[in-house]
Specification:
It is a single chain. The protein has 338 residues and is α/β, with parallel strands linked by helices. It folds into two domains: 243 residues, Rossmann fold (3-Layer(aba) Sandwich), CATH 3.40.50; 86 residues, D-Amino Acid Oxidase, Chain A, domain 2 (2-Layer Sandwich), CATH 3.30.9. It is built from nine helices and 15 strands. The strands form two sheets. Strands 3, 4, 5, 8, 9, 10, 11, 12 and 13 form a nine-stranded mixed sheet that branches. Helix 1 crosses helix 9 and helix 3 crosses helix 9. The chain is globular. The two termini are 12 Å apart. The model has no long low-confidence stretch (mean pLDDT 96). It catalyses: D-glutamate + O2 + H2O = 2-oxoglutarate + H2O2 + NH4(+); D-aspartate + O2 + H2O = oxaloacetate + H2O2 + NH4(+). This is D-aspartate oxidase. Belongs to the DAMOX/DASOX family.
Length: 338
């Protein structure tokens, strides 16, 4: 039987997770991943990569919990295996602190991470401007290691990789039977989605090997995440801002805010500065549609718009995308056993 030709567009954490899942789960598919930029030049590469989630307004909470749990379980298995250092995936414990007591003291993912509890008053003393906090162990996934590791895993499963800018889905219609769109912010032009927009994020990498625990202010703008080779500190959340240049005003603000939470950072050396645009949307788009391309109907599966939660949700939404591809296969060959 001829393999079904599947194109995955995008080589960030969503694209590679989806490509790996399809290649490993659906052997009847021949999968090619196409992208203009690969690691280390993707938005995912600069992400702090801590597993942590916000609630999307219009997606059933049960589905969001499944996305989180599937991703957490997948990465936890890697963190507890011999692949942990090569994949850049490991456990990380720390605090999320709040200036005011939140209405919801237990987020929807609190039972999906490890050891979630409220901070004791003694623990909060070191953060005098904050009234409430949570302690938990989660996972840090460093995409500068994880993406090359996923690429290797994808190719081992028979996947093909092609570096190419895709300007329209029409370019793929004659060579592929199913197109999976994981182009993130690129979906604004690739599929004409007006609902996807950038949220600019600037981070710094510091040399501070003495730091062992993460600290995150609940506003999501100030955070300190120790990693394997450096500590990532940030950040900014500038909606609709397309600037990719480092802003020295932001650099100064990040260092001031993070040093206020962790004074030892005043002695840390700045190793690098980085800017990325989070591919944001009111809700991620994980769905399929039939599109007319060059006179033929082509199945398109979308998986983009995760904002700053791409690493957190990648494996979960990838598994959903595999389910959508499987539906497309059933409709193409209703008699085939898949």
């Amino acid at each position: 039987m001829e393999p079904v030709r599947v194109a995955v567009v995008g080589a960030g954490v969503i694209g590679f997770s989806t490509a790996v899942c399809i290649a490993e789960v659906l052997p009847s598919c021949s999968v090619t991943l196409l992208a203009e930029r690969f690691s280390p030049d993707t938005t995912s590469d600069g992400a702090a990569g801590i597993l942590f989630a916000a609630e999307f307004p219009d997606i059933p909470l049960e589905r969001q919990r499944r996305w989180f749990k599937d991703s957490f379980d997948h990465l936890l298995a890697i963190a507890q295996s011999e692949h942990s250092p090569e994949a850049g995936v490991f456990l990380s414990t720390g605090w999320q602190i709040f200036k005011d007591v939140p209405a919801n003291k237990k987020p929807f993912w609190s039972d999906l991470v490890i050891g979630f509890r409220q901070m004791a008053d003694e623990e909060l003393k070191r953060f005098p401007d904050h009234k409430f906090g949570q302690v938990f162990t989660t996972i840090k996934c460093e995409c500068s290691s994880y993406l090359p590791w996923l690429k290797k895993r994808f190719m081992k499963a028979g996947g093909q990789v092609e570096q190419k800018r895709i300007n329209s889905l029409q370019e793929l219609s004659s060579s592929f039977d199913i197109i999976v769109n994981c182009s993130g912010l690129g979906s604004k032009t690739l599929v004409g989605d007006p609902h996807v927009y950038p949220v600019r994020g600037q981070v710094l990498k510091l040399e501070a090997p003495w730091l062992q625990h993460f600290t995150r202010d609940s506003d999501g703008k100030t955070y300190i995440y120790p990693g394997i080779h450096s500590v990532t500190v940030g950040g900014t959340r500038q909606e609709g801002d397309w600037r990719l240049q480092v802003d020295e005003g932001d650099t100064k603000s990040i260092l001031e805010r993070c040093s206020a939470l962790e004074p030892s950072l005043r002695k840390a050396k700045v190793l690098s500065k980085w800017v990325g645009l989070r591919p944001s949307r009111r809700n991620p788009r994980v769905e399929r549609e039939a599109v007319q391309l060059n006179g033929r109907q082509v199945a398109v599966v979308h998986n983009y718009g995760h904002g700053g939660w791409g690493v957190t949700l990648a494996w979960g939404t990838a598994l959903d995308a595999v389910g959508l591809v499987r539906q497309c296969l059933h409709e193409r060959r209703p008699q085939a056993k898949l």
